[in-house]
Write a structure and sequence with these properties.
The protein has a two-stranded antiparallel sheet with strand order 1-2. It is mostly helical. It is built from 13 helices and 2 strands. Helix 2 crosses helix 10, helix 7 (121-149) runs antiparallel to helix 9 (176-201) and helix 10 crosses helix 11.
């Protein structure tokens, strides 16, 4: 039994770090390092400053971040997620293919069986891949917006915002309860998107994927997603800042400045933030002074307390006699969003 459990955990780590389509693979991390190094060299050269390997190493791997208590808490939560929670909870209870099939069955009952595929297989695959990616982004935005505006969900989500420094490991700084809700929410949105797409484009239309992950999400992971949780300020501005969420966009999302709260809620794309009025386009120069929630959390780097406190706070919320209801900031009004 122990050997089987250990073997399964090793397989989980192998998939996370080695699967080509994993958004946390070593190859995608290496790509992030290359992108940050190229940006560093371009910035130094544009300012007429000398380049050095030592300076590059300090930029890519700053010790103040690597040795920070916040990073240590991220690492502990990463181990808990991969070695404990995943085995106990199983994460997603709903299956994207199962939901897609049910959507197709429902559409067939209402509108009749799908007709012949209107497009050639290549065009159909491209379109349904884009549809699936947009459905993923919409599901991500909807859940993220709810996690910031619903008092109960915020108690679990705010753990992610207690990070005082950002590294790629910060993506694992989430509560297991939130992770379960999040993954099942994504399954519903993606399943519906793919189901509608397959009904319209023909049942044979398939999403282009690598290791089971939409190829467009993989491209984003290999180019800039990891840098969203980093010290590298790369800002997409103008039109592109309203289409893609650059590293600077997400660093603004983590900012402790109230004017940045509840902004930039998407994953890779800014289009849903743009559509729903939660977009804050960053400037080219850094405009985030610090991260975290300040005094809202007593010890932001206590990984064990981070797992139990949301549960206590939730009990307090649903049983008011035991304590005060938690408070969360309101979502920004559309007229205030963006620039």
């Amino acid at each position: 039994m122990f050997e089987e459990s250990l073997s399964s955990r090793i397989e989980v780590l192998r998939h996370i770090f080695l699967a080509p389509g994993s958004t946390f693979s070593l190859t995608s991390m290496l790509c992030a390092i290359v992108v940050s190094a190229l940006f560093f060299m371009w910035r130094r050269r544009s300012r007429g400053r000398a380049l050095s390997l030592r300076g590059l190493a300090r930029y890519a791997f700053p010790l103040r971040l690597l040795l920070h208590p916040s990073t240590r808490a991220d690492a502990i939560l990463f181990l808990m997620h991969t070695m404990v929670f995943g085995a106990l909870l199983g994460w997603a209870f709903l299956s994207q293919p199962w939901i897609a099939e049910r959507v197709i069955m429902g559409l067939t009952q209402v509108f009749g069986p799908p007709g012949e595929a209107p497009l050639n297989p290549l065009a159909a695959a491209v379109i349904i891949t884009i549809m699936s990616f947009l459905a993923y982004e919409l599901g991500y935005w909807v859940f993220h917006w709810a996690a910031h505006t619903n008092p109960l969900l915020w108690q679990f989500h705010k753990i992610h915002h207690t990070a005082q420094v950002l590294t790629p490991l910060t993506v694992w700084r989430v509560h297991p309860v939130e992770q379960v809700i999040f993954l099942n929410t994504l399954a519903v949105f993606i399943g519906v998107g793919e189901g509608v797409g397959r009904y319209v484009l023909g049942g044979g239309a398939q999403v282009y994927a690598i290791s089971g992950v939409n190829v467009l999400l993989v491209v984003c992971a290999y180019s800039y997603i990891h840098l969203q949780h980093s010290q590298v300020w790369i800002a997409f501005t103008g039109f592109w800042g309203r289409v893609f969420l650059s590293p600077a966009h997400h660093q603004i999302h983590h900012s402790s400045d109230p004017k940045h709260h509840n902004r930039n809620l998407g994953s890779c794309l800014a289009v849903w933030d743009w559509a729903f009025g939660t977009l804050f386009v960053p400037q080219k120069q850094r405009e985030v002074a610090e991260y975290g929630l300040g005094e809202e959390v007593k010890d932001p780097n206590d990984a064990v307390a981070a797992l139990f406190e949301p549960i206590y706070r939730t009990v307090d919320y649903v049983t008011p006699a035991r304590g005060e209801k938690p408070v969360t900031g309101a979502a920004p009004q559309p007229a205030e969003a963006g620039r």
